[in-house]
Amino acid sequence: MRTDLRSERGITILETTVILSVLFILAGAMSPIVSESVNTARAVKARNDASMIALGLVNFQKDVGADAVNIGGAGVAAQAPRLPGLLASQGAAPETDDPNEDTSETPVPILSGPTAQAEALQAGAVRTALHAERRKWLEVPAGALDDVLSTNRRGYRYRRPGEYGGWNGPYVSGEIKGDPWGNQYLINTQWLDGGSSTADAAGRPRRAVFVVSAGANGVIETPFEQTVVDARAYGDDIVVRIQ
């Protein structure tokens, strides 16, 4: 029997190169799609986690609000532990300055009119104030979120049988790990007061309270202090508002 040598030859180097080139092109085309899908899934998980934390803090506040945030209950509030100004979950501390962001001063147009100069100076002042507010997330004394929602390490008064108030957790299921990018969830509990109006008891604008994840870029961009009437998330931060 005659053997057909043409049917038994292997793949040539040229054919192998072409196949590998096609595979690399397909991999390069799919990489952004896969990366975007991963970040989308992480963002969804971060929002779900932040919503769970927010609900836990709302329930915690209902149970021990008078003790923890000093709304009413004057007889016990002076002796009870207070919430820290900021609560942080497990994970790495996020950055507050984006290395890719232009932080240079806004140039003042010397030859322009007074209106343009005033606007340039105002824009620079706003940007400086915004960066200062972002840095507050890492400057305010913080406490562990687990110590409030998972355990009662801070020593709030436990709820006794038949009582309405008192710590009655845990308020979340399990320990609160970092966000999907490994950074902390942060809550500006300094402003938590249990009110619902736009002004506090002293008539000042009430401040918003958020659960914040710094998002995919790892930079927290949402200001620490915002009023409830114009509060919003900045950049790619994932934010769930409590108050």
What is the first-to-last residue Cα distance? 87 Å
Portion in beta strands:
5-15%
Helical residue percent? 25-40%
The biggest sheet, with number of strands, parallel, antiparallel or mixed sense and barrel status, is: 5 strands, mixed
Radius of gyration: 27 Å
SSE ordering: HHEHEHEEE
Written description of the protein model:
The termini are far apart. Helix 3 links the parallel strand 1 and strand 2. This protein has a domain of 160 residues. It has a five-stranded mixed sheet with strand order 2-1-3-4-5. It contains four helices and five strands. It is 37% helix and 7% strand.
Summarize, please.
The chain has helices at residues 13-68, 74-77, 114-139, 146-149, and strands at residues 86-88, 142-144, 186-187, 210-213, 238-241. With 243 residues, the chain is an alpha+beta fold.
Set out the fold topology.
Elements: H1 13-68, H2 74-77, E1 86-88, H3 114-139, E2 142-144, H4 146-149, E3 186-187, E4 210-213, E5 238-241
Parallel strand pairs: 1-2
Antiparallel strand pairs: 1-3, 3-4, 4-5
Descriptive keywords:
5-stranded mixed beta sheet; 243 residues
